[in-house]
Amino acid sequence: MQEEIHYDSIGEGYEHFYNSVPQRKVEVRTLFDMVGDVQGKSVLDLACGYGYFGRELYHRGASKVVGVDISEKMIALAKKKSTEYGDNIEFHVANVSDMQLNEKFDIITATFLFHYAKSIVELESMFRSVANHLKPSGKLVAYMAAPDYQLEKGNCHNYGLNILSEEPLQGGFIHQVEFITTPPILLTFYRWDRETYKNAIHKAGFGHFEWRKPMVLESDIERYPAGFWDTYQQNCMHTGLTCWMP
């Protein structure tokens, strides 16, 4: 979570919001499927927030988990939860673009990180920093704003988000978005296109990479009214991305 001012002000409200939106189970399912088996592997959880994903991977057998977030309030909350749960996760306040942890990991997760890069230069620096912290054959698993989303094809009201605007910029679009909460929480994010991501990935030294659509199951569809998931499946705001080091 690179928007430190916004997320410092949100605090625990962010946790409550994301635990309440209907797509939460879909996102969690998709991310863990992309990550795969973590038994005995080291994990770096970027934009870790209050530590949910890293904590889950720790309990799934990761040998070491380190969480990094730019928000001091989020890291304080993550440390508090680790004390409550008695886990041994390490947390740091840092900007991903210039972090220096002096170690390399088998897997790096980055949930809702890359769409906060405010420029192509910043996006490329994020990917370069990630690559510098991965072991050979290590992989990055990311979840972020989908390059192919188009506001004219549908908003995200059913999923707790209201996309207020979509303005073009070099390499993508900039969006004003609000969480549908009381009161609404306003955020800005950047939806970079596929070519911009491809260039950033290759410049950082990654080899193969794959895009991944969210895993909506039949059980998800049956739980809600007909048509509820249509926009999510046909014009989803979010997508997964896996990148492998040579």
From TrEMBL:
Keyword Transferase (UniProt): yes
Query: SUPFAM superfamilies, from UniProt?
Result: S-adenosyl-L-methionine-dependent methyltransferases (SSF53335)
Which intervals hold domain Methyltransferase?
Answer: 43-138
Q: Which GO terms describe its biological process?
A: methylation
Which Pfam families does the entry link to? Methyltransf_25
Top-rank lineage group of the source organism: Bacteria
Which cysteines in this chain are paired by disulphide bridges?
C156-C236
Positions of transmembrane segments: none
Q: Which residues form a coiled coil?
A: none
GO molecular-function terms, A-Z? methyltransferase activity
The residues the record assigns to binding S-adenosyl-L-homocysteine are D69, N95, V96, T111
The record, for Gene3D superfamilies, names: Vaccinia Virus protein VP39
Which keywords appear in this protein's UniProt record, sorted alphabetically? Answer: Methyltransferase, Transferase, Ubiquinone
PANTHER family per record: TRANS-ACONITATE 2-METHYLTRANSFERASE, TRANS-ACONITATE 2-METHYLTRANSFERASE-RELATED
Protein name according to UniProt: ToxA protein
